[in-house]
Structures are given as structure tokens and as C-alpha cells.
Amino acid sequence: MPSQVISLKCPGCGAPVSTDQSTCKYCKGPITITSFNSVYSMPMPEVNKYARSYQQTLAEHPDDTAIHTSIAMCYLKLKLYDKALASFEKALEDNFDNSETFFYAAVCLLKGKKAFLATRGIIDQAVEYIQAAQMIEPRGIYSYFLAYIRYDYFKRKHLTVNPNWEATLAEAKQYGVSEADIDQLYSILGVERPKDL
Question: What is the Cα gyration radius of the chain?
Fold first, then answer.
């Protein structure tokens, strides 16, 4: 079921709020989390508090897309990749126009490990999610993530893929990928940046 306006307690302070508000008027924290940037610098205890609040809301509204996306972002920050992936995929059931949901679902598939260590089925699914994100909204970081997969999985295993990682990296630069986005991606992935990328 798509997102609807629901009443809940603010995940930050517990005040009564609704999902049509972007921030709480009391604590100024986000009501729902639509982007990983909202939780990226949030302290872990606060992320846990948000996740618990969203779990309670999902008990009453199990099909709400916005809450599934919000809890998925929290789980991703907590490096609970399987839970995050399940929530991202639940959010995708009714909302196919959010490129970030596809992108972060692809991140979750790698489970905090190098692409080289994943199975081919996982890599194929991750590539499919990234390409879906790119179709919705072409962004440099999406192309960069694809370049990373093509480098770390395909190049390192001596597999041919077209376009190759270098062409995909050039595409990312053409779209304007920033060093901050790249650093954040590797932080979320939990792996070191390869020297060639």
C-alpha cells in the first residue's frame, strides 16, 4: 500500500506528529527518513531510537512505503543489511520512482563486503537495482557504484563486461560525482576504496 498520512510519535522526541510533516516542530528531527544523508551523521543511539519508533509504527501500518524506507535507512546505518534489504524491497513493491531506494537496496546486497566476494547472482541483482536507479534519475554516484562493481568483481575475476569499469567511471565523472559522495559510498559499503578508482 502506498504511503498515506499517518499519525505517530516523533522518532526523536516522542511528540505527536504525522507523516505529512517533514520535521518535528519540537526537536527539529526528521519524521520520516527519505535519504541516507539524514542518518549518515546521526549517532548510533539515536538511529536505534528511530528504528524502534518505526518498528512500532509498522506494527500498525505494515504496508506504509515511507516507514519501510525510513526503517531501511536506519538498518543500513546500523549495518543490518538483511533487514535493510527486506525493508527497501518492501518499499519498492508500491513505489518504483525512488531512485535512492533501488540504489541502497543494491548497497545492501553486498552486505558490507567487497563485490569480489559476492556470488554472480548477487552481483547481477545489484547491477539490476543500480540500472533501475539510473533510469529513474541518472546520478554520478550511481554510475560510480556500478564502476566499482565492474572493477572489483568483473575485472578482478577476469570477466568481460561492456561497458567496462573505465567507461562507467568516465560516465560517473560526466554526471558529476563528488569526492564526498564517493567517500560516503565506501563508508556505507564498509570497504576500502580501490586505488584505481
Answer: 17
C-alpha cell at 188: 556505507
Single pTM value for the model: 0.91
Number of residues assigned to the chain? 197
Residue 161 · residue 116 · CB < 8 Å: no
Cα distance between the two ends of the chain:
40
**pLDDT truncated to tens, each residue of the chain (197 aa)?**
445 788 888 998 999 998 889 899 999 989 999 888 889 889 999 999 999 999 999 999 998 999 999 999 999 999 999 999 999 999 998 878 899 999 999 999 999 999 999 999 999 999 999 999 999 999 999 999 999 999 999 999 999 999 999 999 999 999 999 999 999 999 999 999 999 88
CA separation for the pair 85, 130 (Å, rounded) = 14
